[in-house]
Amino acid sequence: MRLIRRKIYLLWLLATSFAQDKPAYLLFSSDGKRLSYRQVLHRLLQADVIFFGELHDDPIAHWLALELVKDLHAKRKLVLGMEMFETDQQEPLNRYLRGEIDLHQLGEEVRLWPNFSTDYAPLLAYAQKEKIPVYATNAPRSLAREVARSGASALEMWDESKRHLIAPLPFPRLDSLPSYQKMSEMAASHGIRTENFRLAQMLKDATMAYRIHQTWQAGTLFFHLNGAYHSDYHEGIVAYLRLYAPYLRVVTISTQRVEAPLKYKPPKEKIADIILVVPESMTRTHG
Fold first, then answer.
1. What is the C-alpha separation between 205 and 6, in angstroms, rounded?
2. pLDDT for 114-127, tens place per residue?
């Protein structure tokens, strides 16, 4: 009886301490199994391409991305790709990585994101220190804006000076994917022409996928940082990369912000291979 009471007490103690825990983040498999950082790292080391789907204003995602990059770099030949840089910005990015200009000078040549200094500069600084290549993968925003405004006719008018900055034309249309359908609904609710908006998003995703396809080399691990909606459900960039390079082993990470991380249950449809869950109450890096 004493042994039974002791077991009950230990279970109660474990339950109460667990309930009082407030983790800054948790990691899950696609089916909801809790994962340790070590388990996640082991899974990522088997990949050719990793898509780290972040929330742009979440500090935990940015911190974890940097920690993963450090640990992956210790074991594999690593290259980085970033949605935050556009293909026509590669040269100034390279000059920063070579130490020819500092971050302030880079910001004078390239329109950096508002939260760049706090959220992405540490990753870039680490890449510079360790001489890790970083590729600007996103389509130039000026070209995406032209497509959003004028649709497919904008693509037809571009000469080679613009076309070399994006995925080869004509790139495949993946309009039927649920993620693009949701984007269309969002655009319609804001009075934006859905066809053009969807095409502009596909231009970005196709370009990012093609740049990864272009720059990946056998034996390297390509770590790509992008907004989660660009790779969730293995759609967006992942769907295009599957067309350009179906032989690559891809692992996706999606950041999900929830009210009760300890009670998290993933959606029935596989959102990502690995799910990073962060509290809804987590401080955000910008408005």
1. 57
2. 889 999 999 999 99
77-110 per-residue burial string, b: 16 or more CB within 10 A, e: under 16 = ebbbbbbbbbbbbbebbeebbeeebeeeebbeeb
CA distance 51 to 73: 16
Q: What is the pLDDT of residues 166-224, one digit of tens each?
A: 999 999 999 999 999 887 676 666 566 788 999 999 999 999 999 999 999 999 999 99
Token duo for residue 97: 């990585």
Residue 163's alpha-carbon distances to 113, 201, 214, in angstroms, are: 24, 16, 15
Q: How many Å separate Cα 232 from the centre of its chain? A: 9
pTM, two decimals, is 0.90
pLDDT, tens digit (0-9, with 9 covering 90-100), for 27-45: 999 999 999 999 999 999 9
- The region, left, alpha or beta by phi > 0 then psi within -120 to 50, assigned to residue 209 is alpha
> How does strand 274-279 pair with strand 220-227?
unpaired
pLDDT surpasses 60 at 241: yes
Which amino acid is present at 30? S
